[in-house]
């Protein structure tokens, strides 16, 4: 088990996946909160049954899986629905995150969570790493990646913690605005060495 955990976060479209992939290439275990969140509501799960009972059959796809886009649109426009869903899912997700962190074999491990700070998951980590870009970059990258429109992306940005508060909570920051892939990889490599030393001190 890794005794040293780095929480990696950043706003939508900041490049968290690219950064976590670079750490993974160095042999670091990555626990992805988004993947765990998807597994919690997978086809046939108890959580999915409860969601369908609450919201209705129309929130299932033809394959009997959760229609995530449709549900996301609904909860962004309805605070009570969002609260209900969070109260159901957050304890389940947190439980599985803790189990996965305990099983991570590398010298330190990475917890990747877009809502690390919003969901108070920073309490599970020793250090917070933020991937930072400006809002215009977030919108531009997400438009290229997703089928969302600009107003939906803006709503997601508004629902997340502000850039200012995110940076205030950071122990380390990677700037991913107007940098090349090689420059990004260099930033990750430096932090990797730093975290290895920190984890060795913890594990002594």
TrEMBL record:
Keyword Phosphoprotein: no
Enzyme class: transferase
CDD domains: DPCK (cd02022)
SUPFAM superfamilies recorded: P-loop containing nucleoside triphosphate hydrolases
E.C. designation(s): 2.7.1.24
Gene Ontology MF: a single term: kinase activity
Chief location category: cytoplasm
UniProt KW Transferase keyword: yes
Listed pathway(s): Cofactor biosynthesis; coenzyme A biosynthesis; CoA from (R)-pantothenate: step 5/5
Compartments (UniProt record): Cytoplasm
UniProt KW keywords: ATP-binding, Coenzyme A biosynthesis, Cytoplasm, Kinase, Nucleotide-binding, Transferase
Similarity comment: family membership: Belongs to the CoaE family.
Protein name as annotated: Dephospho-CoA kinase
């Amino acid at each position: 088990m890794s005794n040293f955990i780095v929480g990696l976060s950043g706003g939508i479209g900041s490049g968290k996946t690219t950064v976590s992939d670079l750490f993974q290439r160095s042999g670091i275990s990555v626990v992805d909160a988004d993947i765990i969140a998807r597994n919690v509501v997978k086809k046939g799960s108890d959580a999915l049954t409860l969601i369908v009972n609450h919201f209705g059959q129309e929130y299932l796809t033809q394959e009997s899986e959760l229609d995530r886009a449709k549900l996301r649109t609904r909860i962004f426009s309805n605070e009570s629905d969002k609260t209900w869903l969070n109260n159901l899912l957050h304890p389940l997700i947190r439980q599985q995150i803790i189990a996965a962190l305990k099983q991570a074999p590398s010298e330190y491990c990475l917890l990747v969570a877009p809502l690390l700070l919003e969901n108070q998951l920073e309490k599970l980590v020793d250090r917070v790493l933020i991937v930072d870009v400006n809002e215009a970059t977030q919108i531009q990258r997400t438009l290229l990646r997703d089928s969302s429109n600009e107003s939906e992306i803006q709503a997601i940005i508004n629902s997340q913690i502000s850039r200012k508060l995110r940076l205030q909570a950071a122990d380390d920051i990677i700037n991913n605005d107007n940098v090349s892939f090689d420059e990004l990889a260099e930033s990750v490599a430096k932090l990797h060495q730093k975290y290895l030393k920190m984890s060795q001190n913890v594990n002594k």
